[in-house]
Amino acid sequence: MKKALIASVALSALSPLAASAAERTLTISVYAFAQDDFKTLVYDPFEAKCGCKLVVETGNSVERLAKMEANKANPVVDLAAVSMADALAAARAGLIDKVDTAKLSNFAKLYDIAKDPNDDGMSVGYTFYATSIAYRPDKMKIDSWADLLKPEYVGHVAFPNVTTNQGPPALYMLGQALGKDTPDLKGPIEALGEKKDEIVTFYEKSSQLVQLMQQEEIWAAPIGRFSWAGFTKLDVPVAWATPKEGQTGGMNVLVLTKGSKNQDLALQFMDFWLSTDTQTKLAEKLVDSPANNEVKLSEAAANNLTYGEATAKSLKLIPSAVALDNRAGWLKTWNEKVGQ
User: Fold this and answer.
1) Which of 130, 241, 301, 336 could form an S-S bond across to 249 if both were Cys, CB 3.0 to 4.6 Å?
2) How confident is the model over 142-196, as pLDDT tens digits?
3) What 3-state class would DSSP assign to 128?
4) Which residues contact 245 (CB under 8 A, 6 or more apart)?
5) What is the pTM of this model?
6) Which residues does residue 83 pair with via DSSP β-bridges, in sequence order?
7) pLDDT (tens digit, 9 = 90+) per residue, 124-142?
8) What is any one GO biological process for this UniProt entry (predicted)?
9) Domains: count for the chain
10) Which residue range forms the structural domain that includes residue 64?
C-alpha cells in the first residue's frame, strides 16, 4: 500500500511536466501560398519531431504585421515569415528579436545573401527569387534592361505596375541600365512615362502574361522566377534574359517575435525549415527556391527555380531601408508620370 501511494505521488508530480511537454504550442504567421505542401513537408514532420502542436496563421503582410503590432504587449505569434523589407519594418517597430544563429545548426549552410539580409541580425532568409525578363528570342535580343525601351521592342512589352512585388525591382534594374539609379527611381519611372502609350500593359498579375505571350501580343516582360514555369509550357519559344546589369529579385525571411515565450521552440522550427532535407523537398515541389547551399535539385526543378551559388551571388536586391523609405515617393511619381 505504501509503495502504491509513493508511486501515485510520483506520477502526480511528473504528470504536470508531461502534460506541459505534450501541450507545447508554437504559433507561426506565414503567407497563404502552398499551405497544403507546407503542411505535408514542414508542419507535420516538425510536429512529429518536437512532440508539440503547430498553430498556423496566414494572411497578407499588412494584416499579419498589423496583428503583431496590436499584440505587441502580449504576443500571440512566435515566428513569422515575411519579406526582407517587412522584417526591417518590424524591427523598426520593436516587434522582433535578434536571431541567435548559434542555435541554428543549418545556418552555416545558407548562401551568404540569406544569412543576415538586413545587416541587423534580426532575420534569416529561407527563400529568394530572381527577377529578370522573359522574352521571345525569335523576335528580339535582350542584352540590357534598357532594351525593353528600344523603339523596335517597346510596343511589345508588358511592365509590372509599381504597386506589384515586381514593379520596384524591375524599375531598379532599368534605372541602373539607364544610368539613373537613384533610390527615388525617378529616372526609370520618367523613362517609362515617356513610352507609356506604346507599352502594351502595366500588369498587376503575372498570370495574365502567359496568355499575352501565347497570343504574341507581347514579346517581353520582367517577371519573378516563380512565374517562369508557365512560360515554359507555351507553344512559342521563350527565354530567360541575363542582362549585363544583372538580375534583381526578392527574399523572404524568418523572424522571431519580441517577447515570445517560445523562442527556443521557434528556433528549433526555424532550423528545421532551413535544413537540407526540408529545403530540398520544398524545392522539388517548386514551392520555394532553396536558401540552403547544400540542396541538390533535379534538372527540372532547377530550371524552374532561382538556384545555385552563382545565381545567388548575382542578385542585386533593393536594400530594405531604400524600399521602406521610398515607397510612398515611388507611387507618387508613378501616378504623376505613368498614371493609374
Assistant:
1) 130
2) 999 999 999 999 999 999 999 988 999 999 999 999 999 999 999 999 999 999 9
3) strand
4) 144, 145, 173, 176, 177, 316
5) 0.85
6) 252
7) 999 999 999 999 999 999 9
8) thiamine transport
9) 2
10) 25-128+251-307
